[in-house]
Amino acid sequence: MNPTTRRTFLKQAATATLAGLSLSSKAAERKDLKVASASARPWYRRTLRWGQTNITEIDPTRYDIGWWRKHWKRTQTQGIVVNAGGIVAYYPSRVPLHRQAQRLGGRDLFGELCHAAHEDGVVVFARMDSNRAHEEFYLAHPDWFAMDAAGKPHKTGEMFISCVNSPYYDDHIPAILREIVERYHPEGFTDNSWSGLGRDTICYCGNCRKKFQERSGEDIPHGKNWNDPAYREWIRWNYDRRLEIWDLNNRTTKAAGGPDCIWAGMNSGSIAGQCERFRDYKEICGRADLIMLDHQVRNDSSGFQHNGEAGKLIHGLLGWDRLIPESMAMYQAGKPTFRVASKPAPEARMWMLDGIAGGLQPWWHHVGAYHEDRRMYHTAEPVYRWHKDHEEFLVNRQPIASVGVVWSQQNTDFFGRDDADALVELPWRGVTQALIRARIPYLPVHADHIDRDAGQFSLLVLPNLGAMSDVQVASVRRFVERGGGLLATGESSLLDEWGDPRSDFALADLFRAHVADPRRAGDEARRKKNANDTVHTYLRLSPEQRTRVDGPQTGTEPPVTGERHEVLRGFEETDILPFGGVLGPLRVDAGSQVLATFVPAFPIYPPETAWMREPKTDVPGLILNTIAGGGRIAFLPADLDRRFGRDNLPDHGNLLSNLIRWAAKDAISLAVEGAGLIDCHLYHQPGRLILHLVNLTSAGTWRQPVHELIPVGPLHVRIKLPADVRGKSLRLLVSGRKAAASVTHGWSRVEIKSVLDHELVVLT
Ligand SMILES: [Zn+2]
Q1: Coil, strand or helix: which one is 467?
Q2: CA-based nearest residue to 357, from 329, 379, 390
Q3: Which of 171, 344, 527, 579 is the most exposed place for a label (fewest CB within 10 A)?
Q4: d(CA 426, CA 51)
């Protein structure tokens, strides 16, 4: 059967199965409409399990297609990614200078695999890798390649980097795409490195000079200068060019292969990574049919939970009705990398499970078609089989969350600049880690989507969201005026969307705190130093609200005056918290509650000198307010989010979660009690709730790889019931154990005895 016939057959078979019901003729007519729409659902909306054998140049001599076909079956894989062309071709290409893979030897490996997959009812993403070429190509078209200011080509190793503004992208790559479509009919295309040279390298080739001049009337900037309008324009221009390439490639593949023959590139799970490669996530998701996510491993600082979060963040842009397959390394990837050694199965498994909990689709990934470490072939299968059995609960669902954590790529670019990790990512990580630790469901929300998406939230968090546009600021204000809570930290709203300092916080009227010295707002060196340094500073908790004093007395404490504020719950036995950051003065409006003040640094060594030189200042670290008729606002100038992200001190995480609960007026739809680090993801489908509990408790939680899984439990879970869920019937889809649910006052209560790696609770 040729591929086209095969696809027609598959479509017909799907229709026949769905239509194989006994129906009266009128009902059948109505059903026919539904069947038509179900079978019309394109392949990229229904391919839930993926696999990839990334072909090395030696593989044409040893690729055992029969073995891999069995592996597709064993793992219930529905779609595969197959190397086709770009740097090298895995088929006999006629496109000039499209070099054959070293050991191809005339074999049509791509064609054979594509045919085999279609025979097995498996869809094919033809994989391109299109940003570099060998020397003979460079010598034929030196003007198609990226150049430094001196006119020397940019290289990586022996290869030359093609310029995104050259005919390499406009003509050469489209010619390859057309050839592959016409000859093999893959369902679509993906591309590993489609976006060319990254942000850290400027191309001065003739094409770039000419096109940038046409766009801006300026020369290509001489170097990096975030304050230079020409450099900012160069950044924006680069983003726009990648979007043009995205559109061009999609036009090309759809024109050649039909409207469902999509080109999907690949994207990262890291916003800083997207920035460095000029990939505008919001714009890409606005035009993408699915996202192929190249985000293979965890790192120690962000953990497995980063994978679930990546799923939620991208779905927030793409929509929850679309799919996000994620490449998951079955080999030891990350630090260190061993391409042909198995990743310890518990490590690979946890990354997969947390991603699935966040709405990602699994995509096993091996480098090379033959392995002497065969253990890696056993990792995916049990996860994939479980996924197949329960797939109806894993897609087409809406997340339920009480908290929206606000982000924007422009903030990473223009506030983060060259220090996005300390300025943007660490505060983000601290806040989200505090939320996960407190088992409070949250969703990332793009700052441009607050009006659209924040309706379900009790609270928005701005984790040091320094760069905000006036429009974004207005959205936050509307949210609070409607009664929503706000936790803002650090320098949130202090700069505009280009990273230019404002004279005061744009949200100063909500914070009820103002910049005392506008010069500090524009002091980039100070900002970076404070974000990167840890100094011996403290926060003094509001003494007026201390309820008791245990321990030795100095005789100078102020009198006890009343109840302590609820955000300081758990800190009854301390008047100070370790801090580590630096705070400057702020003007605080009358009537605001300042619950923590800054204690400046004093010596650590020698111990004889370790006493506070200035035990009390009026520099505020935490300010609370309630807007009349509106929400509760916590403004935390102290960068406890960044500190928690970096230092992991429980005091910082606890204060953050106390602030979140207070500002959300405790309107949080999930509570999970029991020891352990558990990543909770809650979803709604019509008539039922779906809760993932991913057990991240392990000796390797903050140090990869995980060697073994350690069970937790019992867990006591309470979930607020939406109107269409009765909440009395319960299924546990991992352990298969029986459990009972009891319902009181619109909440369902469940006890789960034990969770090894994950549990999926379905409540109806
Ligand atoms: Zn160029």
Answers
A1: strand
A2: 390
A3: 171
A4: 33
Model pLDDT for residues 641-663, shown as the tens digit of each residue? 999 999 999 999 999 999 999 99
Going by C-alpha positions, the residue among 525, 512, 535, 524 that lies closest to residue 466 is 524
Contact in structure between 315 and 396 (CB atoms under 8 Å): no
> Cα(285) to centroid of ligand 1, in Å?
26
Tokens encoding 120:
């097995």
Could you give the CA distance from residue 324 to residue 322 in angstroms, rounded to a whole number? 7
Task: Measure 129 CA to ligand 1 centroid, in angstroms.
Answer: 18
Which residue matches tokens 């009972």? 740
Q: How far is the CA of 156 from the centre of ligand 1 (A)?
A: 16
pLDDT of 1 above 70:
no
Q: Residue 702, CB half-sphere, CA atoms under 13 Å: how many?
A: 7
Q: Region 395-402: what's the mean pLDDT?
A: 97
Give the Å distance between the CA of 143 and the centre of ligand 1: 8
- The model's pTM: 0.93
Rounded CA-CA distance 590/585 in Å is: 15
- Residue 309 burial by Cβ neighbours in a 10 Å radius (0-12, 13-18, 19+): buried
Quick one: which of 72, 56, 52, 126 has its CA closest to 370?
A: 56
Letter string b/e over residues 681-710, b meaning 16 or more CB atoms within 10 A of that residue's CB: bbbebeebbbbbbbbbebebbeebbbeebb
**How many angstroms is it from 513 CA to the middle of ligand 1?**
47
Ligand 1 geometric centre to CA of 207 (Å)? 5
Backbone angles phi, psi at 312, to 5 degrees: -70, -40
Residue 255 tokens, joined: 């024109």
CA distance 762 to 725: 11
Position 31 pLDDT exceeds 60: no
Span between the terminal Cα atoms of the chain, in Å: 45
Integer angstrom CA distances of residue 547 from 550, 552, 571, 657, 741: 10, 16, 11, 22, 40
Per DSSP bridges, beta strands 688-695 and 758-763 are antiparallel
Strands 132-133 and 50-54: what pairing?
Answer: unpaired
Q: pLDDT category, 5, cuts 50, 70, 90?
A: very low
pLDDT(93) > 80: yes
Q: Give me ligand 1 centre to Cα 161, in Å.
A: 10
Going from the Cα of 171 to the center of ligand 1, the distance in angstroms, rounded, reads: 15
Rounded to the nearest angstrom, the distance between the alpha carbon of 232 and the centre of ligand 1 is 17
Enter the tokens of residue 749. Answer: 């209560």
Q: Which of 131-135, 218-222, 452-456, 521-525 has the lowest mean pLDDT?
A: 521-525
Q: Look up residue 275 and give its two tokens.
A: 């920035």
pLDDT at position 6: 44
DSSP state of 458: S
CA 276 – CA 296 distance, rounded (Å)? 18
